[in-house]
Amino acid sequence: MSPLLADPRRSLELLAPAKNLEYGMAAIDHGADAVYIGGPAFGARYGAGNSVAEIAQLARYAHRFDARVLVALNTLLTDEELSEAESLIHELYAAEVDALIIQDMGLLRLDLPPIQLHASTQCDIRTPAKARFLQEVGFSQMVLARELNLSQIATIATQTEAVLEFFIHGALCVAFSGQCYISHAHTGRSANRGECSQACRLPYTLQGPDGAVIAENKHLLSMKDNDQSKNLRALVDAGIRSFKIEGRLKDLSYLKNITAHYRQLLDDILNQLPAEQGWRRTSSGHSRYTFTPRPSKTFNRGSTDYFVQGRLTDIGAFDSPKFAGPAIGTVTAVAERHFDVALLQDEDEGSQETLHNGDGLSYYTAAGVLAGVRANRVDGARVHVNDALDDLTVGATLYRNRDQAFERLLAGPSATRKIAVQMWLEQVGAHLRLTLLDSSAAALSASVSCDQPLQAAHDADQALASLRKGLSKLGETAYTLRSPADLHIQLTSPGFLPAASINNLRRAAVAALDAARQQAWQRLPRAQASQPPAKYPQTSLSYLGNVLNEQARQFYLEHGVTDIAPAYESNQELGAASLMITKHCLRYSFNLCPKQVKGIRPEPMRLQQGKDTLILRFDCKACEMHVIGPSRQAGAAGKPQRTTIPIVNLKTRV
User: Fold this and answer.
1) How far is residue 450's CA from residue 548's CA, in Å, rounded to a whole number?
2) What is the value of pTM for the model shown?
3) For residue 458, what pLDDT band results from cuts at 50, 70 and 90?
4) Nearest-CA neighbor of 514 among 450, 452, 427, 440?
5) By three-state DSSP, how is residue 147 classified?
6) Which of 46, 479, 586, 601 counts the highest number of beta carbons within 10 A?
7) Class of 322-411 per CATH?
């Protein structure tokens, strides 16, 4: 049985981002069981496209380790784009891509090859009914909303056999994915079409109903970064089987560091789970690192486990959307071109922090603005810089957002991934036979023979040592011997074989095992849609349904939806509408929630950003906040006008 076809209920997958071919291969080397990557077009990260040829090369590399390549084709599509998308999907299928990540249901009505479909985060999967529906229309895997708690995840898991995926690390969109339209409203750049302008990272001023300023010039819609390191086992127990790292636009050191970090954590969990129940990872091989993973060392806005363990107050990165880095000390003296620091203890290393030439350092000015400086030269606790330090003050906390020594560890090759094998050299008549058996779940093997007879050995021990040394040289191959005991030499009598012959025999056996593994690769099966067509949980869809093309409209009609409004991107919502729906609540963040303080109900509140005013409405029953505003793009392209749905009647997607 192929490892990819093992019981998905007992298989754990680490899913890492890939900006391009180089990043994808690095993710595999550092322990990813699967990678997701953008194709030439229609991916939700504009400018992160890759050619089909490069993706095919990545697929060949990933399949060496039974790892998967998933292509994100997860934007909303116009009617004019559907034909091109259909052609691209056929090309990706021919390139041996394992699955597509999509959000536009119009794709399901096209003539697609039998490639597995995964539901994107933009599908906004928060309920058992939604998850069940997506399974019944042909999705094999789906990423659940990041806002869910463990209990909600566990409930969804009881209602579907599809593989459940969950984001465990990286940037957090403040809005429910697929339910954010502020970028399109303000700039014409749609997040659902891969061009988010990141309005959530801007500074805002929060005002109460009476106009009083509650918070001024703060990044009130900017979240800390997701970090589920401490919740992985709980997520496994709740039913998550694919653990997804965010970051298709992050740099290579982030990818290596974070992938290695979660690989080690998931391996620890797999070692704790009962082996007799069949728990395993979804790919083969083991990674070895030249560094110790340190998540705090690479880009983050602080960390939060968001809503997994319930609502928390401190989930926002209100001071800055940038990477300040971990605190390393306090400024004790400042001169024009240098400053002194009282360094803290490194909590992970158990020793005092050390500064390095080239470190990136940051601090908050007296005005509360995050500023940065590069260390030109370090003398112990004294940092020399090139630029004047007009805004650095004694007593300021110093942070490090680039650890030059750590970055140097990650700059070159920093991991190797090998599949453990056992090796047998046997004498069969006048021939020698070398067999390799891999450690994958499929336990694949290959054998080759050598007609050259053994020569009589003057020193039997030396001859045997020569055979062992030559056969063990697996070097740049994908294989390794765990220990000398995994090499079995079974000869009727000791003998000598020239080094060239040993090398040729070993290379032939490796090539044969490579071929056997390649031949054993099986494409993941496409899930079949149920018949008759499953009913969508609602009979009507507002613009929140994201129906941008006629094929998507027909899809929902076939599944029982009778009232279908066009997507926000069609520019037909001309009045004030919910531009963002979020579980993050500013009333709660500032201790103004009626559940925190009885009798208080400050509504509406306002966010001011430049000349823009956004109204905040609060759905306390659902525990959600709506960010409401008009569209600057209203009436674009001569679209017919339509009265917007009143906010009190808006229904989020099931």
Assistant:
1) 63
2) 0.94
3) confident
4) 440
5) coil
6) 586
7) mainly beta
Q: For the chain, what are the domain ranges?
A: 8-172+224-284+291-297, 176-221+535-654, 322-411, 419-440+443-520
Distance CA 206, CA 174 (A): 16
Same topology, domains 8-172+224-284+291-297 and 322-411? Answer is: no
Asked if 152 and 307 touch (Cβ cutoff 8 Å), the reply is no
Return the closest-CA partner of residue 35 out of 98, 122, 93, 92.
Answer: 98
Is 540:560 a contact under the CB 8 Å cutoff?
no
Work out the pLDDT band at 645, boundaries 50, 70, 90: very low
Angle made by CA atoms 306, 371, 609, in degrees to the nearest 5? 60
Per-residue pLDDT, 151: 98
Which residues sit opposite 289 in a β-bridge?
A: 415
How far is 418 from 409, CA to CA, in rounded Å? 20
Cα(259)–Cα(243) distance, rounded to whole angstroms? 11
Residue 432 one-letter amino acid: L
Token pair, residue 558, equals: 């076939």
Answer whether 207's CB lies under 8 Å from 606's CB: yes
The 3-class SS string of 250-301 reads CCHHHHHHHHHHHHHHHHHHHHHCCHHHCCEECCCCEEEECCCCCHHHCCCC
303 - beta bridge partners? 225
CA–CA separation, 25 vs 19, rounded Å? 10
Instruction: Look at the domain 8-172+224-284+291-297 and name its fold.
Output: TIM Barrel (3.20.20)
**How many residues would you count in the chain?**
654
Residue 640 has a pLDDT of 34
- Per-residue tokens: 185: 């409203």
Tokens encoding 525: 């099966």
Percentage of the chain modeled with pLDDT above 90: 82
98 SS3 class: coil
Query: Which position has the token pair 């009190």?
Result: 648
**154 neighbors 239 (Cβ within 8 angstroms):** yes
Contact 24, 254 (CB under 8 A): no
What does the pLDDT look like over 553-606, one tens digit per residue? Answer: 999 999 999 999 999 999 987 789 999 999 999 999 999 998 888 777 778 899
Return d(Cα 4, Cα 479) in angstroms, integer.
Answer: 19
Cβ pair 579, 617 in contact under 8 A? no
349-396 pLDDT per residue, tens: 778 999 999 999 999 999 999 999 999 999 999 999 998 888 999 999
> Residue 140: what pLDDT?
98
